[in-house]
Every structure is written in C-alpha cells, then in structure tokens.
Amino acid sequence: MNNTNSLAATLAARNAATLAWVAEDPDNRFAMTLVEDLAHWAEMGVTTAEELDHYLLVSEVYEGTREAWGYKPSWSALMAESTEDLQRMADSNASFILSELEREEREQRAHERAVSDALTPSSGWLIGDLVNL
Fold first, then answer.
1. Domain segments of the chain: what residues?
2. Computed over its alpha carbons, how large is the radius of gyration of the chain?
3. What is the pLDDT of residue 129?
4. Which of helix, strand or coil describes residue 53?
5. DSSP 3-state assignment of 44?
6. CB within 8 A of 29, min separation 6: which ones?
7. Which end of the chain is less packed: N or C, by CB atoms within 10 Å?
8. Which residues, other chains included, contact 3 with Cβ-Cβ below 8 Å and sequence gap of 6+?
C-alpha cells in the first residue's frame, strides 16, 4: 500500500472509530472527525500515517500545554520533537490536568461541607435565640 492510500485508510479508520464511540451513547457524546481530504493534509506537510500521528500528537501537546501551564509552546519546536518525547509531554500534561481537576473537586466538596456545617445549628441555640439575649 502506498503512503497516500495508507494515510487515507488511517484517516477513514480514525473517523470510523470516533463515530462508533459517539454512536455508543449519542445523547451524551460528541466528537469531531478528521478532514479526509488528502490535499488538506499535504498542505500541512502530512503525507503518511506516521506523519499524521506525529502531527496529531503535536496538536495534543500544544493544546495540553496551554491548558495545563497557561502558555502556548512553539509549534515548530514541537514538530521537531520525537514521537517518544511528545508522548511523554502529553502524558505529563494529562497527569497534571487530571490532578488539578481532582484538587478542584476536593476543594468544591470541602466548600460545600463548610457551608452546610455553617448553616447547621451545632447547639440548642438558634441565631434568633442569640439575638434576643
């Protein structure tokens, strides 16, 4: 299979997998599919399935870095990274983002408990009773 056919097959397979995932729970899932126009990808410098994988990983690291650390890394520097290094960066970003989400959830639960505790009388006295003293 030549590179063009391999890229077309990879795009079609990724899109089919995405659509199948959405179809499992269409009321709660939404996803975008990849452009299957090979000319589009050629303009981006992507002509093989391997280049597509690298490009998509660069996109993931770029957006993940922006989300996790608040800045946009150099696209050209990311494009020059190896797939292994990009995967490590993507994993690191994902781990950090997940830990931040978990921290925010813990803080939200603690806040809700504190509000509930503050609004729950802890003795036989009520605020109205205290005002009348």
1. 1-47, 49-119
2. 25
3. 67
4. helix
5. coil
6. 21, 22
7. C
8. 47, 48, 49
Give me the count of residues in the chain. 133
Are 86 and 42 a contacting pair, CB within 8 Å?
no
pLDDT in tens, 43-83: 999 999 999 999 999 999 999 999 999 999 999 999 999 99
Residue pLDDT, tens place only, 96-129: 999 999 999 999 999 999 988 888 876 666 666 6
HSE toward the beta carbon, residue 13, CA cutoff 13 A? 9
pTM: 0.76
End-to-end Cα, the chain, rounded Å: 89
Contact 49, 6 (CB under 8 A): yes
